[in-house]
Amino acid sequence: MDSNNTTLTTKSSPAPINFAIALSELILDISALIPNIYFIFILWSRHDLHNNLRVLLASFSSCLILVALTRLPTEFNYIFTGVLYIDIFNWLVYGHEVAVMLLISIAIGIYIGSELNNSSIRNGVITFRGSYYGLYHIIDVSVRLVIWIICFAIFVLILRYNQRCYAFSRLPNKHNLVQRYQFAENVRSSKLLLAVGIIIFVCNLHFDCVMLRIAYNKDYFNVEYSQSFDFVLAVALNAIPIAAIWFHSSMLEAFKSHLKHLTSCLCIFKCVSKSNNSIQQQQQLAINSILPFPPNHPTTTNKRLNNYKSPRALLTGQKLIIGREEEQRVYFNELRKSWNVPPYEMKKKYIKY
């Protein structure tokens, strides 16, 4: 057996800092299943977004779940043996790298998996034996980084354009009702996608920096660099669905309602002595919290109308009507005003014409 295989299969305990990072990654990967599955449930059960966007976001969350699941065996193996990659896990390395690189490129993921299997690991240092990490690799990573920056800049410009169109759409006789709804939907969706895009952009930027570090010295690459990318990815697996829900007003209200409903259910199990009437009242409050204007409580409605503040735009700082119920109320109030013209206004029109 050569020194390469000996290095790869020798069992040892990981260093304390590497063990702490690997344990944190394991906890984050396991916890990432909860927000991603809940985000898919929200997309499936509600119609807050366009159907095509819902399908794309659900597919993306499914990929994140696949990434989290394929990372678990390698992390368990490293925690208990101190070995990052061994021959028996060849299929797992390929599956793990392909799942991760679905966010960038499947072909690059397969290549990185083969490079890791053809490399030696000794005392926390990885030595890559391939000849790929040269000038061509630097050009490839740099071009990909520039493309990511250009795409992100284009997205921000489109968001700025939609916000500007939405601001002007509220002017009288500027756009019809359908166009105003479309502008509002564009702003609402872009706010969600911007938060997700920032997280993905940071992950890809960190990945490109790690790849450039390999190109700088492929014979001496500390394991901590690879673990730092894995840790950032584990954080992103949790942050992406949470940010998608947090930056969408309707989804956030639905999450708060589900959380209140879950809390009320836990209170039912803890406080068995409560009557059925009080339990029904708690559940009714949890359900009504979804609607910003409850239909059966006029006093609460007036309070919420007076205290309601529209959120501001991300880039311009202008006030935007993001809530669907608030938006419908404003639009249809304007339509009702145009329909119910006062008599003296009608006389003025007839006299004028």
From TrEMBL:
Cellular-component GO terms for this entry: membrane
Cross-referenced Pfam families: Sre
Organism the protein comes from: Meloidogyne enterolobii
UniProt similarity note: Belongs to the nematode receptor-like protein sre family.
UniProt-recorded name of the protein: Uncharacterized protein
TM segment ranges: 20-41, 53-70, 98-114, 134-159, 192-216, 228-247
Gene Ontology BP, a term: sensory perception of chemical stimulus
Domain of life: Eukaryota
Cross-referenced InterPro entries: 7TM_GPCR_serpentine_rcpt_Sre (IPR004151)
Keywords: Membrane, Transmembrane, Transmembrane helix
